[in-house]
């Protein structure tokens, strides 16, 4: 079985090919246009997808040495994401399926982040996944393929969103998450004790208050600009510490609640070096086996769509041509309307 995966949920146009022999290609076309705005502009994102999607798919097929005529199904992100961006990818995928008379697989983006762990590895069921990306933060109990229980999620800003918003306050370029992570390596995580919210709730998250706390902390300084210049690394480290401590504490709660022996990280924030170190330590303390995707499969990519589509196709989980995109697709929900 040869699967073409297409991802266009936000500002990455991506395509990948996954076969019985594993991942054959993974192409990502990034959109630099959003950097000047400090965040993703939906209209510009959908236009960029429209311009690059065919070239990206062609490149994935060429690199994977699989002609389009040998593709057995097309897997595409159905949601959640930006509506305009999702429409470009889904309509393109439908066109390919209709022209080649092959089935369509609508993939939940959040499912795909979890199953990115299966590209190079094979986590044992059941396991708990801490899925942390720019728009979502979730704890998911995975008992079998596509059998999930949502334990908890963020009530406001996601972890990645908090990194980006705080980065903007600190004057860092977008996306700020990787920059904060890099600067944290040179700072003191105990420089300032930023708040860790909702520790009285086992599985729910909240990060919006952290952004406000950083803002007020800087405003309280006599010379904000000079203070920031002198202590930027320390502030980044303290922010990273506050976010990752909450994530790891909630993951520990999920391990104790479910009794699993396997845990997984997923999503763009799983590339964070401090989170990886703390999660590794947690795995050692609890005796759990830890799975983390390669960095290339943490942020939005088509490899995770392709392997998820491959696993769904094996189970005959196909979609029809009436499938619609859902910008606010609920956690772990797969719709075929």
Characterize the structure shown.
The protein has 337 residues and is an alpha/beta fold. It is built from nine helices and ten strands. It folds into two domains: 3-114 and 297-314, ATPase, nucleotide binding domain (Nucleotidyltransferase, domain 5, 2-Layer Sandwich); 123-292, ATPase, nucleotide binding domain (Nucleotidyltransferase, domain 5). The chain has helices spanning 42-64, 83-100, 109-115, 159-169, 177-184, 208-219, 224-258, 273-286, 303-314, and strands at 3-7, 12-19, 22-30, 73-79, 104-108, 127-132, 137-144, 147-153, 262-266, 289-291. It has a five-stranded mixed β-sheet with strand order 3-2-1-4-5, with helices on both faces. The protein has a five-stranded mixed β-sheet with strand order 8-7-6-9-10, with helices on both faces. The two termini are 26 Å apart. The model has no long low-confidence stretch (mean pLDDT 93).
Task: Write out key terms for the chains shown.
337 residues, 5-stranded mixed sheet, 9 helices, 10 strands, 42% helix, 19% strand, globular
